[in-house]
Amino acid sequence: MAAHSSIEAITARIVERSKPHREAYIDRVRRAASRGPHRSTLSCGNLAHGFAVCSPAEKEALAGDVVPNLGIITAYNDMLSAHQPYETYPALIREAAREAGGIAQVAGGVPAMCDGVTQGQPGMELSLFSRDAIAMAAGIGLSHNMFDSSVYLGICDKIVPGLVIAALTFGHLPAVFVPAGPMTSGLPNDEKSRIRQLYAEGKVGRTELLEAESKSYHGPGTCTFYGTANSNQMLMEIMGFHLPGASFVNPGTPLRDALTREAAKRALAITALGNEFTPAGEMIDERSIVNGVVGLHATGGSTNHTLHLVAMARAAGILLTWQDISELSDTVPLLARVYPNGLADVNHFHAAGGMGFLIKQLLKTGMVHDDVRTVFGQGLEAYTVEAKLDEKGQICREKTPEVSGDPKVLAPIETPFQATGGLKMLAGNIGRSVIKISAVKPERHIIEAPAIVFHGQQELQDAFKRGDLNRDFIAVVRFQGPKANGMPELHRLTPPLGVLQDRGFKVALVTDGRMSGASGKVPAAIHMTPEASDGGPIARIQDGDMIRLDAVAGTLEVLVDAREFASRPLAEADLSENEFGMGRELFAPFRRSVGEADRGASVFA
């Protein structure tokens, strides 16, 4: 089916806007690809170093330049539950490569930090910048120029966007992303949230809180709520970087291992040495990017991707804007209810039909482009399947049923949970920001209340504990942008604001920081740009100023006389404590050079 008229129009607009950048990018990709397998350009000394640890047969094959060599970029570590399963993947991939007549080498490792560990800690100020550091680290691994194709082992928040930026920077190489899957279901996410809120109110202690958290995050695999990590997996499948049905299969299962082997063999099948050459830079185009945004809206995905998708697209010469994302949200219906946008977790989503059912529904009404290239070698229709093992232990793919396995979790396109995706851009005299309203009740889509200004989430928490916030207000938490302190996630704001909202007060948040995929029931205008440290109007707001947040009209205004507001001096903040410790001094060049949030908060653009 042809794409929906609105989807087609927005895609065409992105194509036109991007044309000079995209043409220059494609020219670079094709020139790099035209040089053929690049080991032929290496000196004997280069090659000797490159395959020193290989077997004699592998050395002979690599020297002959006719056997494909697969570069593995891995984000394995034991700190991230989602990444721990990757420990055994290189061995699986090497074996699969040998079976397919190729060779595989670990080209390099990239850093991978756990935002769950660093939430509210100094290390969180490195989190967003780790995305661009990951892209650079992957680039170092691939710079050895030994590879015909690449596979990327990564799942979590900044890791996948960083790896995608690297894959598109090395766009002359095919790239297959290999997931590890979510952990099995533990303590329900809504129960975990309830305990957190009780802890914020002082009604339970640290022992009870730690017990609840440990029952929720309990084993190998991705955290089961629908935050940035699982939004990443959705994106990789709907954009064609995953094999069909690969995203949400649990780790440590025969199917998971079979999918990993298949990914390695497929990465070798699509090199320039064969007949299905699929360089990542040409595979991903404006239609692929739009499909990713549509998937984000249809599933109520992470607000972090209003940063990451923009940065990922730019790596391929594609200029995606917040306005594009907002307008697509106005067209795309919400089809999934996964926590914090519902009670289910990603395992329930997968059991209800998962990505296959979701893509099938979106294709019905032309909400996604089918005529895209994918690593599977076919259009998006090929992804309307469920991956299984047959009686011989081989992967087979069955068409997804026409009916959802659980309509409370995954809805058909004819009866969506809501008509729009729930991610919107807000604009006004403070600047521009984004808001996720898919989990916010309609009566809270418009909040008008006086401002209370904070220069950090600890200040708000302290005020809450003193009992100073039992009233209607809009919290303005500023000097939290990328130039100020790396734009940390402000998850510690969620429990106190949620408590106050439950007490009947009208509350909302305005910040130049982030709230991520766990943004929930409290209206939150986030990623405000220009940020306070860049002279943004948010630095002129004072306690008591009336603010109107209108997620229906898409506006955010300080209700102060325009002349008076413009004449106010910009507030200043002492950020010296954010400059040192836990590696923050190493990222000073990033803070100085980072771009604005609506350009992806990237050091590359």
TrEMBL record:
Keywords: 4Fe-4S, Carbohydrate metabolism, Gluconate utilization, Iron, Iron-sulfur, Lyase, Metal-binding. One of its GO terms (cellular component) is cytosol. Pathway: Carbohydrate metabolism; Entner-Doudoroff pathway. It comes from the Bacteria. Residues 68-381 form the Dihydroxy-acid/6-phosphogluconate dehydratase N-terminal domain. Binds 1 [4Fe-4S] cluster. InterPro entries: 6-phosphgluc_deHydtase, Dihydro-acid_dehy_C, DiOHA_6PGluconate_deHydtase_CS, ILV_EDD_C, ILV_EDD_N, IlvD/EDD_N. It is an enzyme of class 4 (lyase). One of its GO terms (molecular function) is metal ion binding. This is Phosphogluconate dehydratase.
